[in-house]
Design goal:
This protein has 8 helices and 15 strands. It binds N-(5'-phosphopyridoxyl)-D-alanine. N-(5'-phosphopyridoxyl)-D-alanine binds next to helix 6 and strand 13.
Protein backbone atom coordinates (compact mmCIF):
# COMPACT_ATOMS: atom_id res chain seq x y z
CA UNK A 1 0.00 0.00 0.00
CA UNK A 2 1.46 3.39 -0.92
CA UNK A 3 1.57 6.05 1.72
CA UNK A 4 -0.46 9.21 1.33
CA UNK A 5 0.46 12.74 2.37
CA UNK A 6 -1.62 15.89 2.43
CA UNK A 7 0.18 18.84 0.82
CA UNK A 8 -1.51 22.22 0.48
CA UNK A 9 -5.01 21.00 -0.26
CA UNK A 10 -4.27 17.70 -2.00
CA UNK A 11 -3.85 14.10 -0.92
CA UNK A 12 -0.94 12.63 -2.85
CA UNK A 13 1.19 9.52 -2.98
CA UNK A 14 4.18 10.16 -0.78
CA UNK A 15 6.61 9.81 -3.69
CA UNK A 16 4.80 12.60 -5.57
CA UNK A 17 4.19 14.77 -2.51
CA UNK A 18 6.45 17.78 -2.99
CA UNK A 19 6.81 21.29 -1.67
CA UNK A 20 8.15 24.24 -3.62
CA UNK A 21 11.94 24.78 -3.39
CA UNK A 22 11.21 28.33 -2.26
CA UNK A 23 9.07 27.17 0.64
CA UNK A 24 10.37 29.01 3.69
CA UNK A 25 10.29 25.78 5.64
CA UNK A 26 12.89 24.41 3.24
CA UNK A 27 14.91 27.64 2.93
CA UNK A 28 14.88 28.91 6.51
CA UNK A 29 13.23 26.22 8.69
CA UNK A 30 10.58 28.95 9.06
CA UNK A 31 7.76 26.80 10.32
CA UNK A 32 6.27 24.81 13.17
CA UNK A 33 5.06 21.26 13.67
CA UNK A 34 3.10 18.89 15.86
CA UNK A 35 3.30 15.13 16.36
CA UNK A 36 0.22 13.33 17.70
CA UNK A 37 0.03 9.74 18.76
CA UNK A 38 -2.60 7.61 16.97
CA UNK A 39 -4.24 4.82 19.00
CA UNK A 40 -7.13 2.71 17.85
CA UNK A 41 -7.24 4.97 14.76
CA UNK A 42 -7.91 7.98 17.05
CA UNK A 43 -5.80 11.09 17.69
CA UNK A 44 -4.50 11.27 21.26
CA UNK A 45 -4.90 14.61 23.06
CA UNK A 46 -5.61 16.41 19.80
CA UNK A 47 -7.12 19.60 21.37
CA UNK A 48 -3.97 20.16 23.42
CA UNK A 49 -1.76 19.69 20.37
CA UNK A 50 -3.87 22.23 18.48
CA UNK A 51 -3.65 24.71 21.35
CA UNK A 52 0.16 24.39 21.32
CA UNK A 53 0.22 24.72 17.52
CA UNK A 54 -1.82 27.90 17.78
CA UNK A 55 0.63 29.27 20.32
CA UNK A 56 3.69 28.37 18.19
CA UNK A 57 2.11 30.05 15.14
CA UNK A 58 1.23 33.14 17.15
CA UNK A 59 4.75 33.44 18.59
CA UNK A 60 6.21 33.35 15.05
CA UNK A 61 3.40 35.47 13.52
CA UNK A 62 2.49 32.78 11.00
CA UNK A 63 -1.20 32.88 10.04
CA UNK A 64 -3.41 29.91 10.90
CA UNK A 65 -3.54 28.01 7.61
CA UNK A 66 -7.15 26.86 8.11
CA UNK A 67 -9.57 26.59 11.03
CA UNK A 68 -8.20 24.13 13.54
CA UNK A 69 -11.32 21.97 13.30
CA UNK A 70 -10.67 21.59 9.54
CA UNK A 71 -7.06 20.71 10.29
CA UNK A 72 -8.37 17.95 12.54
CA UNK A 73 -10.47 16.59 9.66
CA UNK A 74 -7.40 16.56 7.39
CA UNK A 75 -5.26 14.84 10.01
CA UNK A 76 -7.89 12.14 10.59
CA UNK A 77 -8.26 11.68 6.84
CA UNK A 78 -4.50 11.18 6.44
CA UNK A 79 -4.60 8.63 9.27
CA UNK A 80 -7.52 6.87 7.57
CA UNK A 81 -5.95 6.85 4.10
CA UNK A 82 -2.73 5.39 5.51
CA UNK A 83 -4.71 2.83 7.55
CA UNK A 84 -2.83 3.74 10.70
CA UNK A 85 -4.25 1.98 13.75
CA UNK A 86 -1.31 2.70 16.04
CA UNK A 87 1.32 5.25 15.02
CA UNK A 88 1.93 8.95 14.55
CA UNK A 89 0.47 11.79 12.58
CA UNK A 90 2.79 14.67 11.70
CA UNK A 91 1.65 18.18 10.85
CA UNK A 92 3.89 20.96 9.59
CA UNK A 93 2.94 24.56 8.86
CA UNK A 94 5.46 26.93 7.28
CA UNK A 95 5.32 30.62 6.40
CA UNK A 96 4.78 29.64 2.76
CA UNK A 97 6.46 30.10 -0.60
CA UNK A 98 8.20 33.35 -1.50
CA UNK A 99 11.34 34.58 -3.24
CA UNK A 100 14.24 34.00 -0.88
CA UNK A 101 14.54 36.97 1.50
CA UNK A 102 15.09 36.58 5.22
CA UNK A 103 12.41 39.07 6.30
CA UNK A 104 8.76 37.98 6.28
CA UNK A 105 7.05 37.88 2.87
CA UNK A 106 3.86 39.95 2.25
CA UNK A 107 0.82 38.76 4.20
CA UNK A 108 -0.73 37.62 0.89
CA UNK A 109 1.65 34.63 1.01
CA UNK A 110 -0.29 31.68 2.39
CA UNK A 111 1.22 29.29 4.91
CA UNK A 112 2.02 25.80 3.60
CA UNK A 113 0.59 22.68 5.23
CA UNK A 114 1.94 19.15 5.12
CA UNK A 115 0.39 16.20 6.97
CA UNK A 116 1.81 12.67 7.00
CA UNK A 117 1.03 9.59 9.08
CA UNK A 118 2.81 6.34 9.71
CA UNK A 119 2.29 3.22 11.75
CA UNK A 120 4.54 2.35 14.69
CA UNK A 121 5.35 -1.16 15.79
CA UNK A 122 3.45 -1.58 19.07
CA UNK A 123 5.14 -4.82 20.13
CA UNK A 124 8.58 -3.35 19.44
CA UNK A 125 7.83 -0.21 21.44
CA UNK A 126 6.54 -2.28 24.34
CA UNK A 127 9.73 -4.33 24.21
CA UNK A 128 11.86 -1.16 24.21
CA UNK A 129 9.92 0.07 27.24
CA UNK A 130 10.36 -3.29 28.98
CA UNK A 131 14.14 -3.00 28.56
CA UNK A 132 14.44 0.77 29.05
CA UNK A 133 16.66 3.12 27.07
CA UNK A 134 20.06 4.69 27.61
CA UNK A 135 20.66 8.43 27.50
CA UNK A 136 23.80 10.53 27.30
CA UNK A 137 24.15 14.16 28.34
CA UNK A 138 25.22 16.81 25.82
CA UNK A 139 25.77 20.56 26.15
CA UNK A 140 22.68 22.67 25.39
CA UNK A 141 23.17 24.03 21.86
CA UNK A 142 19.78 25.45 20.98
CA UNK A 143 18.30 28.93 20.70
CA UNK A 144 16.43 30.18 23.79
CA UNK A 145 12.95 29.89 22.20
CA UNK A 146 12.67 26.14 22.67
CA UNK A 147 9.12 26.78 23.90
CA UNK A 148 8.14 27.15 20.22
CA UNK A 149 7.73 23.81 18.43
CA UNK A 150 9.73 25.00 15.45
CA UNK A 151 11.03 22.79 12.64
CA UNK A 152 14.53 24.27 13.18
CA UNK A 153 15.80 21.03 14.66
CA UNK A 154 19.42 20.90 13.53
CA UNK A 155 20.81 21.12 17.09
CA UNK A 156 18.40 18.34 18.12
CA UNK A 157 19.49 16.26 15.12
CA UNK A 158 23.15 16.62 16.12
CA UNK A 159 22.42 15.76 19.76
CA UNK A 160 20.40 12.67 18.79
CA UNK A 161 23.13 11.53 16.40
CA UNK A 162 25.75 11.91 19.14
CA UNK A 163 23.57 9.77 21.41
CA UNK A 164 23.18 7.06 18.76
CA UNK A 165 26.92 7.02 18.07
CA UNK A 166 27.49 6.47 21.80
CA UNK A 167 25.03 3.57 21.85
CA UNK A 168 22.26 5.55 23.53
CA UNK A 169 18.74 6.31 22.36
CA UNK A 170 18.27 9.86 23.60
CA UNK A 171 20.42 12.88 24.46
CA UNK A 172 19.69 15.02 27.51
CA UNK A 173 20.71 18.64 27.20
CA UNK A 174 22.66 20.23 30.04
CA UNK A 175 22.49 24.03 30.24
CA UNK A 176 25.44 26.30 31.11
CA UNK A 177 24.05 26.38 34.69
CA UNK A 178 24.71 22.63 34.98
CA UNK A 179 21.04 21.60 35.01
CA UNK A 180 19.33 19.26 32.58
CA UNK A 181 16.79 20.98 30.38
CA UNK A 182 15.17 18.19 28.31
CA UNK A 183 15.84 15.54 25.70
CA UNK A 184 16.55 16.11 22.00
CA UNK A 185 12.95 15.05 21.29
CA UNK A 186 11.42 14.42 24.72
CA UNK A 187 11.01 15.82 28.23
CA UNK A 188 13.28 14.50 31.00
CA UNK A 189 12.15 13.16 34.39
CA UNK A 190 13.64 11.45 37.44
CA UNK A 191 12.14 9.73 40.50
CA UNK A 192 13.89 10.36 43.81
CA UNK A 193 14.63 7.55 46.27
CA UNK A 194 11.68 8.70 48.40
CA UNK A 195 9.27 8.50 45.45
CA UNK A 196 8.96 12.09 44.30
CA UNK A 197 8.78 12.62 40.55
CA UNK A 198 10.92 15.55 39.39
CA UNK A 199 10.84 17.44 36.11
CA UNK A 200 11.90 20.92 35.09
CA UNK A 201 9.28 23.66 35.08
CA UNK A 202 8.05 24.60 31.58
CA UNK A 203 8.72 28.25 32.36
CA UNK A 204 12.13 28.13 30.70
CA UNK A 205 14.48 25.88 28.79
CA UNK A 206 12.01 23.27 27.56
CA UNK A 207 9.12 22.60 25.24
CA UNK A 208 5.89 22.28 27.19
CA UNK A 209 5.25 18.66 26.24
CA UNK A 210 1.66 17.54 25.86
CA UNK A 211 2.57 14.13 27.27
CA UNK A 212 4.19 15.96 30.19
CA UNK A 213 1.02 17.96 30.87
CA UNK A 214 -1.25 14.90 30.73
CA UNK A 215 1.18 12.91 32.86
CA UNK A 216 0.96 15.54 35.58
CA UNK A 217 -2.80 14.93 35.69
CA UNK A 218 -2.17 11.18 35.87
CA UNK A 219 0.17 11.72 38.83
CA UNK A 220 -2.32 13.90 40.63
CA UNK A 221 -5.03 11.25 40.22
CA UNK A 222 -2.66 8.51 41.42
CA UNK A 223 -1.43 10.72 44.28
CA UNK A 224 2.15 10.55 43.13
CA UNK A 225 4.14 13.50 44.41
CA UNK A 226 5.49 15.90 41.78
CA UNK A 227 8.27 18.46 42.07
CA UNK A 228 8.74 20.94 39.24
CA UNK A 229 12.36 21.97 39.55
CA UNK A 230 15.62 21.57 37.64
CA UNK A 231 17.97 18.65 38.37
CA UNK A 232 21.59 17.92 37.49
CA UNK A 233 23.12 14.91 35.71
CA UNK A 234 24.66 13.87 39.07
CA UNK A 235 21.25 13.84 40.78
CA UNK A 236 19.78 11.94 37.81
CA UNK A 237 22.50 9.27 37.93
CA UNK A 238 21.82 8.73 41.65
CA UNK A 239 18.02 8.76 41.25
CA UNK A 240 15.84 5.71 41.84
CA UNK A 241 14.41 5.97 38.33
CA UNK A 242 14.48 8.12 35.24
CA UNK A 243 12.28 8.36 32.18
CA UNK A 244 11.41 10.48 29.16
CA UNK A 245 8.05 11.52 27.76
CA UNK A 246 6.91 12.37 24.24
CA UNK A 247 3.95 11.70 21.95
CA UNK A 248 5.88 8.92 20.24
CA UNK A 249 7.20 7.20 23.36
CA UNK A 250 4.62 8.19 25.99
CA UNK A 251 6.54 7.19 29.16
CA UNK A 252 9.85 5.54 28.27
CA UNK A 253 12.02 4.30 31.17
CA UNK A 254 15.70 5.31 31.20
CA UNK A 255 18.07 2.70 32.64
CA UNK A 256 21.48 4.33 32.08
CA UNK A 257 22.81 7.90 31.96
CA UNK A 258 26.28 8.49 30.50
CA UNK A 259 27.05 4.79 30.91
CA UNK A 260 26.07 4.64 34.58
CA UNK A 261 23.05 2.52 35.46
CA UNK A 262 20.06 4.18 37.11
CA UNK A 263 18.48 2.34 40.06
CA UNK A 264 18.92 -1.38 39.49
CA UNK A 265 19.37 -0.97 35.76
CA UNK A 266 15.80 -2.07 35.02
CA UNK A 267 12.75 0.13 34.29
CA UNK A 268 11.40 1.46 37.59
CA UNK A 269 7.99 0.76 39.11
CA UNK A 270 6.82 4.39 38.95
CA UNK A 271 7.69 4.78 35.26
CA UNK A 272 6.07 1.43 34.43
CA UNK A 273 2.89 2.36 36.29
CA UNK A 274 2.69 5.79 34.65
CA UNK A 275 3.14 4.20 31.23
CA UNK A 276 0.35 1.71 31.93
CA UNK A 277 -2.07 4.30 33.27
CA UNK A 278 -1.35 7.11 30.81
CA UNK A 279 -4.07 6.48 28.23
CA UNK A 280 -6.80 6.27 30.85
CA UNK A 281 -6.29 10.02 31.21
CA UNK A 282 -5.75 11.09 27.61
CA UNK A 283 -8.46 12.36 25.29
CA UNK A 284 -9.22 10.39 22.12
CA UNK A 285 -10.81 12.08 19.13
N1 LIG B 1 9.06 15.57 20.09
N2 LIG B 1 10.85 18.29 23.97
C1 LIG B 1 11.23 18.27 22.68
C2 LIG B 1 12.46 19.00 22.29
C3 LIG B 1 10.46 17.55 21.74
O1 LIG B 1 10.84 17.53 20.46
C4 LIG B 1 9.31 16.84 22.17
C5 LIG B 1 8.45 16.08 21.22
C6 LIG B 1 8.96 16.91 23.54
C7 LIG B 1 7.73 16.20 24.08
O2 LIG B 1 6.56 16.83 23.66
P1 LIG B 1 5.20 16.01 23.47
O3 LIG B 1 4.96 15.28 24.74
O4 LIG B 1 4.18 17.06 23.20
O5 LIG B 1 5.41 15.08 22.29
C8 LIG B 1 9.75 17.64 24.40
C9 LIG B 1 8.25 15.02 19.02
C10 LIG B 1 7.53 13.79 19.40
C11 LIG B 1 9.12 14.88 17.78
O6 LIG B 1 9.87 15.82 17.52
O7 LIG B 1 9.03 13.89 17.09
Amino acid sequence: MSRIAYVNGRYRNLRDACVNVEDRGYQFADGVYEVCEVRGRKLVDFPRHMARLQRSLRELRIAEPMPLSALGIVMREVVRRNRVIYGLVYLQVTRGVARRDHAFPPTTVKPSIVVTARPLNYAKNQQTAANGIKVVTVPENRWPRVDIKSVSLLPNVLAKQEAREKGAYEAWYVGSDGFITEGASSNAWIVTKDGRVVTRSAESGILAGITRAVLMEVMEALQIRLEERPFTPAEAREAAEAFVTSASQIVMPVVAIDGQIVGNGRPGAVARRLREEFHRFSAFS
